[in-house]
Design brief:
The chain is an all-alpha fold. It is 54% helix and 0% strand. It is built from two helices and no strands.
């Protein structure tokens, strides 16, 4: 994936328990919650063929 400036913003609502769990997973992976969400979304889109 080509490097692009990170200027797009996405707001979403999560169940508090899901957010807390995701924050723990991000910390375990030494990344921010935003970075984890980007990683997971990128992996999903690649697996589905939307990204190369």
């Amino acid at each position: 994936m080509a490097k692009e400036p990170k200027t797009a913003q996405v707001n979403l609502r999560l169940q508090p328990s899901l957010k807390e769990t995701a924050e723990r997973a991000a910390a375990d992976d030494q990344r921010s919650l935003t970075s984890l969400v980007e990683k997971v979304l990128t992996e999903h889109l690649k697996a589905k063929g939307y990204l190369k």
